[in-house]
Amino acid sequence: MVIEYQQLFDFTKRILLKIGCPETDAELAADVLLSADLRGIDSHGVARLSGYVRLWEKKRINANPNIKIVHETPSTAVVDGDAGLGLVVAPFAMRVAIEKAKNVGTGWVSVKNSNHYGIAGYHSMMALEHDMIGLSFTNASPLVAPTFSKERLLGTNPISVAIPAGEEPPFVADMATTTAANGKLEILQRKEQDAPFGWVQDDQGQPTQDANGVKKGGALLPLGGDRDHGSHKGYALGSIVDIFSAVLSGANYGPWVPPFVAFLEPDPNPVGEGLGHFFGAMRVDAFRPSSDFKSHMDNWIRRFRSAQPTDGNPKVLIPGDPERDLEKERRSGGIPLLKPVFEDLLKLGDRFEVNL
Amino acid sequence: MVIEYQQLFDFTKRILLKIGCPETDAELAADVLLSADLRGIDSHGVARLSGYVRLWEKKRINANPNIKIVHETPSTAVVDGDAGLGLVVAPFAMRVAIEKAKNVGTGWVSVKNSNHYGIAGYHSMMALEHDMIGLSFTNASPLVAPTFSKERLLGTNPISVAIPAGEEPPFVADMATTTAANGKLEILQRKEQDAPFGWVQDDQGQPTQDANGVKKGGALLPLGGDRDHGSHKGYALGSIVDIFSAVLSGANYGPWVPPFVAFLEPDPNPVGEGLGHFFGAMRVDAFRPSSDFKSHMDNWIRRFRSAQPTDGNPKVLIPGDPERDLEKERRSGGIPLLKPVFEDLLKLGDRFEVNL
């Protein structure tokens, strides 16, 4: 099932209008959400739309939030998302970071009282058109066990860094701090296939290849997989994301982060408000002339892209290459949807009297 | 062979004075270098002292540099290390970051024309006493192959992040962006043991367990180890460190980073000056009151430390725990040196007429 981008965008926007989002918010949120589908991170796109709606029904998402700065210095701010869609709160906060960078070279914004913000890369890439480097982190509901822990204490806590180049397309890293994203496990689950060791542990904290291991009380593993392969580093990275996003802002952190699924209740004794994000913007010319930076980035990218590949691999990729290729393809050729996702959208459309 | 900390410090300082470092620089450099030995990162401590001296002989290290800011905004700077010891250049740059953070909330400093700076964690931890979060990155000579590359294009490019807490000791992550640090391979080489798969590839870019694989034209692998286990994420992290440290500052990047070993010549056509570092300092109270932040960091640390451990592991560790324990032990009990390292220091002492 392939749907044209514009059709899916209009549908998403109209659903968001129906739950009470203002026009500009509905448009922005649809743009953010669909950037995931365009870039091939299907688990974070329209597949989640009905999940957002269920959170709104539970009054855990505020469709018309009063997002505001609650603390600031020339280069920093804390933003209170007022329980809004992360899809709207995050671009607000990133714009604050960009404005601060215009004034003093860099801007750093930690966000509380927000919700799931789509793909990390959308927000970091907002910096690119301003000749800035963008950073975007978020915490998320606990699915990941620290090294040596049976318990799940961290989310997949992604890191995205977007770096402008000159003639070359930008460098855009966007990655969960786990060995494998949850979306990859879902693919294996549907195919009833095993996962490689290093992706999941079981409910006793032992290595397992069961792709359903997380659902059975196990956990995703931090990047590295096990101690011998550096899982303590993935654990540290996920922790840094959690602390920058939530301990700095006053959001919930670690095991207290509210679940995305509406059928699980948030902790009755939260340690903060909603979930947290962290954004950064650094003006390239706050370090050296922009043209110098860009020509060296072009040189960097070309040198890495032209490295001698290992057998069976056509070439060395630059972070962002696969997603950019897919975006080009899907913008013109449409977005493939899995049957259950398509049916879920149809049901949503029926309910709100919106045609897909 | 165990040597008291003070004895090793005095020896190191006197050697550095002999090559022409000013008194304060020699003291600072000895402090930075020996912090590696104290914290158990033996590969980055006094074991490298004779290597620094050999670089000085080759005039690739300037013992009396004029380190200066060459570009700045209220929250950023580029520092030119004048080919000085990274052990001295890095603390200078970190102090600049801290001063900027005092003024505008955060400070970000990219450094060119420097050399190896010891352990990343020394510099990030400088922020702690100011109630700031500290960041420290550096690039390094190319030993690491990007995912799908036969060629070595990145250094072990470490990331360190130090975060203050209240009653609990600070969170201090300090990690190479590879699966395993080179020091761990050296231990296996001495024992003539194999490395686990995922640490090293051979000269054809194929997985190998040969602990000497890097010396034979292979490469260290990025954190993740292989594509299935997220090596593209480790590759992206190492790249971000390289770009922030060198493309932002005007240092050499990727395969152009000058080798640490004096017997290998730097590239005759460099793309920048020396090697690069990147530092950040963020005032905690630029986001929320310091006491709030610290009490939540204590809560974060206690919750993670008290997580239910997996069988056979006594407890979940917080980044920085093992190094702090070792530092306490070695400050009082002395620093163990391997025989070849001890003999190397004796030879150095003979040459400069300095007693160990």
Short characterization:
The structure is a homodimer of 356-residue chains. Chain A has 356 residues and is an alpha+beta fold. Chain A is 38% helix and 16% strand.
Structure in words:
Chains A, B: Pfam families: Ldh_2. Chains A, B: Keywords: Oxidoreductase. Two copies of one chain form a homodimer. With 356 residues, chain A is an alpha+beta fold. Chain A has one domain: Ribosomal Protein S8, Chain: A, domain 1 (2-Layer Sandwich), CATH 3.30.1370. Helices cover 38% and strands 16% of the residues of chain A. Chain A contains ten helices and twelve strands. Chain A has helices spanning 5-18, 23-38, 49-57, 86-104, 120-125, 182-191, 231-247, 290-305, 321-333, 339-352, and strands at 2-3, 68-73, 76-80, 106-114, 132-138, 159-163, 171-175, 200-201, 207-208, 219-220, 275-283, 335-336. A seven-stranded mixed beta sheet of chain A has the order 2-3-4-11-5-6-7. In chain A, helix 1 (5-18) crosses helix 2 and helix 2 packs across helix 4 (86-104). The longest helix of chain A has 19 residues, at 86-104. The first copy, chain A, is globular and about 50 Å long. The two termini of chain A are 12 Å apart. The mean pLDDT of chain A is 97.
